[in-house]
């Protein structure tokens, strides 16, 4: 493949190649999955867990991406600090979470993913979220389309976010998400719509659910990093939604000293007039 840096990587061929890499990395993760309670766990500086499964997936993806596209740097959640320190010089790079939802992995809930985004000029222009247990990818290229892709049977199914209907909106969130700001958001929904439904999931599966038309909003006020969000942003944007900061502006990546994401709300139907009120309520 070896595309030069001037080539357009936003293609189905790229997604096919990424899925092959994700299959390998997913198999490396699954080798640790059953009996994950016995795997050695380190605690990182943000007090999230790190295991041999995260590192095995990181190594395969880092080497695989650099082998296929030597001109495009790779920034992974598990990259060494020396790599992370160079990132502000990059206009285009792969942003990778080799195992998103390590807690879910350790508790064997099945809700963990591999996230890969191609970031160009501070926006994700391609994103892929891979679920190793299902061998299923959710991928999007904004402006071209979003798809659910079966790694085993090679099937491609088009995805689209849903329009906001007349009933209760469905909130996508993790069962672990609590806190006063989420409670405020849910109260606002109850006031504006008379109630809300909730679909819980771990890791980037919330973005997959939105792109597949299973939810209306994913409010995130608890800490997470750009590698947790960028692939989902590309996917949801490609499926007709948007991932907005509380000023209503699409998120930008690799433009701050920190890689922590700002608070955001992902919306399946960003044109619905009700959301201006929600963003206003959450911004204050
Ligand atoms: N204190 C913290 N600081 C930064 N990120 C955090 C965090 N606590 C949780 N996260 C992020 O939230 C992700 C899990 O999201 P969710 O709660 O929606 O399942 C974790 O992904 P990893 O498992 O890749 O570390 C981690 O990146
Ligand atoms: Mg993560």
UniProtKB/TrEMBL annotation:
Needed cofactors: Mg(2+)
Residues that, per the record, bind Mg(2+) 1: 77, 97, 99-100, 228
PROSITE patterns: IMP_2
GO cellular-component term (any): plasma membrane
Highest rank taxon of the organism: Bacteria
Subcellular location as annotated: Cell inner membrane
Statement: the UniProt record of this protein carries the keyword Plastid: no
Membrane topology: Peripheral membrane protein
GO molecular function, one term: 3'(2'),5'-bisphosphate nucleotidase activity
Function recorded in the entry: Converts adenosine-3',5'-bisphosphate (PAP) to AMP.
Protein name: 3'(2'),5'-bisphosphate nucleotidase CysQ
Species this chain originates from: Parahalioglobus pacificus
């Amino acid at each position: 493949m070896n595309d030069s840096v001037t080539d357009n990587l936003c293609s189905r061929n790229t997604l096919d190649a990424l899925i092959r890499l994700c299959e390998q990395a997913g198999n490396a993760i699954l080798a640790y999955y059953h009996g994950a309670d016995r795997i050695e766990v380190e605690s990182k500086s943000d007090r999230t867990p790190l295991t041999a499964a995260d590192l095995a997936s990181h190594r395969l993806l880092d080497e695989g991406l650099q082998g296929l596209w030597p001109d495009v740097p790779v920034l992974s959640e598990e990259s060494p600090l020396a790599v992370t320190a160079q990132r502000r010089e990059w206009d285009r790079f792969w942003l990778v979470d080799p195992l998103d939802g390590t807690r879910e992995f350790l508790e064997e809930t099945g809700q963990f993913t591999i996230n890969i985004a191609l970031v160009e000029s501070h926006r994700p222009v391609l994103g892929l979220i891979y679920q190793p247990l299902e061998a299923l990818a959710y991928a999007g290229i904004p402006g071209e389309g979003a798809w659910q892709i079966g790694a085993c049977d090679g099937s491609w199914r088009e995805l689209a976010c849903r329009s906001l209907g007349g009933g209760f909106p469905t909130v996508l969130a993790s069962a672990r998400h609590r806190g006063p700001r989420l409670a405020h958001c849910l109260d606002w929904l109850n006031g504006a719509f008379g109630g809300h439904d909730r679909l819980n999931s771990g890791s980037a599966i919330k973005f997959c659910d939105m792109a597949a038309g299973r939810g209306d909003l994913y409010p995130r006020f608890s800490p997470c990093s750009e590698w947790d969000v960028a692939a989902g942003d590309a996917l949801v944007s490609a499926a007709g939604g948007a991932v907005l900061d509380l000023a209503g502006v699409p998120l930008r990546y690799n433009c701050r000293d920190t890689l922590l994401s700002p608070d955001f709300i992902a919306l399946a139907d960003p044109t619905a007039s009700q959301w201006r009120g929600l963003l206003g309520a959450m911004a204050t």
